[in-house]
Design brief:
Blueprint lengths: L2 H7 L13 E4 L2 E7 L2 H5 L3 E3 L1 H6 L6 E6 L5 E8 L8 E5 L1 H7 L7 E6 L7 E7 L6 E3 L7 E3 L7 H18 L7
Parallel strand pairs: 4-8
Antiparallel strand pairs: 1-2, 2-7, 3-6, 4-5, 5-6, 7-8, 9-10
């Protein structure tokens, strides 16, 4: 995702925290789900639910290996916030590279699974990609289909419109009669 989009949406980003209700444990393996927000793509961290952190003993800063669906391994750091919620933990370090290489977009859901008694100290991630945009069929006379997408005008279009308006305004200004 281009950095410009992150800068523009920076003030409107959500915190990117996962909630404790998304934390589960089964047969000694604990997991949580996190829906990727604009915040997680713009900034270099992802919140870890407090319940998940305490269940797995993530009290201090540490590194953990995270395995993605393609079998690649990433060294992510776990740290805690410095504000009022000191019990809030988050992934940082190589998080942004992990997100970019795995093509994460807003709306994707990542499930992080951790088995503290496992053979290797690794957390596995599965990624459920956001549904693609719907395709609308135009009338049968045209015989085409178009993807619903952002209808914001391009910068070239806006430049052309502003240039047209400038010359139109100049033409309205009375010019002195030279006779």
């Amino acid at each position: 995702m281009p950095d410009e989009e992150c800068e523009i949406k920076q003030k409107n980003c959500t915190t990117g925290r996962s909630r404790d209700k998304d934390v589960h444990q089964s047969d000694g393996i604990s997991y949580f789900k996190a829906t990727i927000s604009q915040f997680n793509i713009c900034y270099s961290y992802l919140g870890i639910p407090s319940k998940f952190s305490s269940m797995n003993g993530f009290r201090d800063k540490r590194e953990i290996t995270v395995g993605d669906p393609e079998g690649r391994e990433w060294q992510l750091r776990i740290s805690h916030s410095r504000g009022k919620q000191r019990n809030q933990r988050f992934f940082y370090g190589d998080w942004l590279n992990f997100a970019r290489v795995n093509g994460l977009v807003v709306g994707d859901v990542c499930t992080f699974e951790y088995n503290p008694g496992g053979e290797k100290d690794i957390m596995y991630v599965s990624i459920l990609k956001k549904q693609s945009e719907p395709v609308m069929e135009d009338t049968k006379e045209r015989g085409t289909s178009s993807k619903i997408e952002d209808q914001s005008p391009s910068s070239e279009y806006l430049f052309g419109v502003s240039l047209y308006l400038f010359f139109w305004l100049v033409s309205l200004v009375e010019t002195p009669n030279i006779s």
